Structure to design on (247 residues):
């Protein structure tokens, strides 16, 4: 019997990266798992998972999905996008793309699922350390994650004790988003080495690191945790700006 045995979960953006790792971890812990994405079911999504092709930016589609998935114990809002631009370079289309997915998408899913979730349910929003400290040239992404953090607290306050709501704030995780960030540097190789030196763990995170936190937050072990932002960043934001690798 796993820690999530008998529980049902829905994971947005569950087809790759952190979302896929969460899907696999939930399955391993005995949960009944459904997942969604904009496209067709990816080959990496295991057969027991129910796949929903739905765009989180589409409020009506999310409302229908939430109503169809009555009685969910766990909702994970993982779907997210990133662009690498300062605010003066950002277009209205960029705003619609990033804020539509990262901010409104989380709002849409929570609004759609909360009325139909089981009592004692757990919502886990994937925020970011970028909602605490600004990554360069990612103005909209940073702002969208700050929105997620604020919404997380509001849901916890407004809908407790029936529902717990927390956010995981990943640091630099080995996904395509991480590589896109390093590509902005004049010397990506040096930038990556510098970043590693700033991690107390001396490694970047892996999707499985975030999935492990998600399992705990979804489980009854986290029954007294709500309205919190859990940073999982290998100690990077705990350090001063001094690069330990140069000392």
């Amino acid at each position: 019997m796993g820690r999530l045995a008998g529980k049902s979960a829905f994971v947005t953006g569950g087809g790759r990266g952190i979302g896929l790792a969460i899907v696999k971890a939930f399955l391993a812990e005995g949960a009944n798992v459904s997942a969604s994405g904009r496209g067709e079911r990816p080959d990496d999504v295991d057969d027991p998972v129910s796949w929903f092709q739905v765009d989180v930016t589409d409020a009506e589609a999310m409302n229908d999905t939430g109503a169809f998935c009555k009685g969910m114990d766990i909702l994970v809002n993982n779907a997210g996008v990133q662009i690498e631009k300062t605010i003066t370079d950002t277009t209205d289309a960029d705003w619609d793309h990033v804020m539509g997915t990262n901010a409104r998408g989380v709002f849409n899913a929570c609004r759609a699922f909360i009325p139909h979730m089981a009592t004692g349910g757990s919502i886990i929003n994937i925020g970011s350390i970028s909602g605490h400290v600004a990554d360069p040239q990612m103005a909209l992404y940073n702002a969208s994650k700050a929105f997620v953090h604020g919404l997380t607290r509001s849901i916890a306050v407004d809908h407790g004790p029936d529902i717990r709501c927390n956010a995981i704030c990943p640091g630099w995780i080995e996904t395509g988003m991480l590589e896109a960030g390093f590509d902005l540097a004049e010397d990506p190789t040096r930038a990556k080495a510098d970043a590693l030196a700033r991690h107390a763990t001396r490694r970047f995170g892996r999707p499985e690191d975030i999935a492990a936190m998600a399992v705990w937050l979804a489980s009854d072990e986290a029954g007294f945790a709500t309205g919190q932002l859990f940073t999982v960043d290998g100690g990077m934001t705990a350090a001063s700006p001094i690069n330990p690798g140069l000392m």
